[in-house]
Amino acid sequence: MAAVLSAPTYAADQPTIPIIVKDTTSNYWQIVLAGARKAGQDLGVKVPELGAQSESDINGQISILENAVAEKPAAVVIAPTEFKALGKPVDEAAKKVPVIGIDSAADSKAFTSFLTTDNVQGGRIGADGLADGIKEKYGKVEGDVALITSLPGVGSLDQRAKGFKEELAAKYPGLKLVADKVADGKATTALNIMTDLITANPNLRGVFASNLIMAQGAGQAIAENKKADTIKLVGFDSDDKLIGFLKDGTIYALVVQDPYRMGYDGIKTALAASKGEKVEKFVDTGANLITKANMDGEKQHALLFPKVK
């Protein structure tokens, strides 16, 4: 009888730590979830994989967070979709369970720990990569450049834009930011913005597209207009499409985060916090510039081709 009862008792003891991402359908968040899943397996934690179908579904994510907390988990890991809107919901959740933030900030001081790419630094890396590409082509770091941001009011994207602009101002006086465009999170919009930039700015030499979706659309426009030689594009994050653009020269470079580590360490940190252990308040999970020239390096290859399954 005791043996029969022991199995469910063990399962009940297993802590539950849901992870809530911005968009369960995109490649980047699939990698985050894969890291979280592996941590769950390694650490004996149940990890429900939650999230909306789109990064723009802010109310959807708030509902998911409220429902997750109502289930009384050991802790919650969340990547907030929007800085202001998720502030109060995170504050409320943190009154009941430890909340670990990943990827993007929210307007809350209630996170037990926060694991993210230093997005300001990511923007700086993007500017440096763009300068390298322009120098390689034109011999000097000078000319017109543009910035394309995916959505307004997203903490991580605002920080990337800040870092990019600060680096241009501090290190590259010859680069002139002639356009600073904000889209609606859709690749087709990025395609249209990039096409318009090509038409309106015949002297355009470089573009920084600050997330995966924007890089996809901008890359498509550069490919369709056969501008890869004259306009250097630096994207952020990677998937099969962007890796293809990197290989064929459509994209000059990608700033790549470590989303697998973000997911894995998010669960690991949440488990420690749920046991009352001291955890780091802020953890930088790193960003790297990957070009066609270095993409086959061991570290770069692991970042471009993480084990998702």
How would you characterize the overall build of this protein?
By secondary structure, this protein is an alpha/beta fold. It has 11 helices and 12 strands. The protein has helices spanning 2-13, 27-43, 58-70, 87-94, 119-138, 155-171, 187-200, 212-224, 240-248, 259-274, 298-304; strands at residues 19-21, 49-51, 76-78, 99-102, 113-116, 143-149, 175-182, 204-209, 232-236, 253-257, 282-284, 287-291. Helix 8 (212-224) links the parallel strand 8 and strand 9.
Short summary:
The chain has 309 residues and is of the alpha/beta class. 47% of the residues lie in helices and 18% in strands. Helix 7 (187-200) packs across helix 8 (212-224).
Defining key terms:
single chain, six-stranded parallel sheet, 12 strands, disordered N terminus, alpha/beta, six-stranded mixed sheet, elongated, 309 residues
> Given the helix and strand composition, which structural class is it?
alpha/beta
Task: Tell me what portion of residues adopts beta-strand conformation.
Answer: 15-25%
Secondary-structure element series: HEHEHEHEEHEHEHEHEHEHEEH
Q: Which range best describes the helical content: under 10%, 10-25%, 25-40%, 40-55%, 55-70% or over 70%?
A: 40-55%
| Count of extended strands | 12
Rg, nearest Å: 21 Å
Mean pLDDT: 94
* Bulk shape: elongated
Sheet with most strands: strand arrangement: 2-1-3-4-5-11
- What are the low-pLDDT stretches, counting only 5+ consecutive residues below 50? 1-10
Distance, first to last CA: 38 Å
Main sheet makeup? 6 strands, parallel
Oligomer: single chain
Number of helical segments with 4 or more residues = 11
